[in-house]
Amino acid sequence: EPEVTQTPSHQVTQMGQEVILRCVPISNHLYFYWYRQILGQKVEFLVSFYNNEISEKSEIFDDQFSVERPDGSNFTLKIRSTKLEDSAMYFCASYVWTGELFFGEGSRLTVL
Amino acid sequence: KQEVTQIPAALSVPEGENLVLNCSFTDSAIYNLQWFRQDPGKGLTSLLLIQSSQREQTSGRLNASLDKSSGRSTLYIAASQPGDSATYLCAVEGSARQLTFGSGTQLTVLP
Predict the structure, then answer these.
(1) Residue B79 CB neighbour total at 10 angstroms
(2) Most buried among A103, B33, B37, B38, by the most CB within 10 A?
(3) How close does chain B come to A42, measured CA to CA in Å?
(4) Digit-coded pLDDT (tens) for B58-71
């Protein structure tokens, strides 16, 4: 069964460092998302991406964040200068048009 | 702003029981509602998707209903098993095509 894959599964970084989280969405999907879940809190929307551009972004998705689809398969989330409060599980998701969202296993980011 | 609430926050039942998880949302202008399962430290697995025009969806022992006008959904799990132990999340998709999640119900099924 096709799945969304994310790397790395866990990354530990120092505050102020740049981090890139990578995702390979399901191959025929057209809409891509990043969500995050801070430990013990709700899953929160960050950004949606369609047709090679950002469709929507939340207030969390400030100038420190960026997304890119550098080739036909990868979808990346970059955090330019990490803060302690960026520590969370980051989920990539994708869907075609039915509305059913398929999530990856997540990348756990720990900022020290 | 859409708010999604799930009750109860936690539930512990003996194996074999039928159970109901509740989800409510404040803005009835939704495209769909999706139920997910999340195991500790893992990703979200889609269980059921109900389009706004539908009233319910079934998959195996799971049945989800949607009452859009009252802003409610229920997830019914029949004949629960220890393997059903997980956190169940409800999420609604609104006009901005993004999901708003509830806090989840943590289910423990005791053998």
Answers:
(1) 11
(2) B33
(3) 5
(4) 999 999 999 999 99
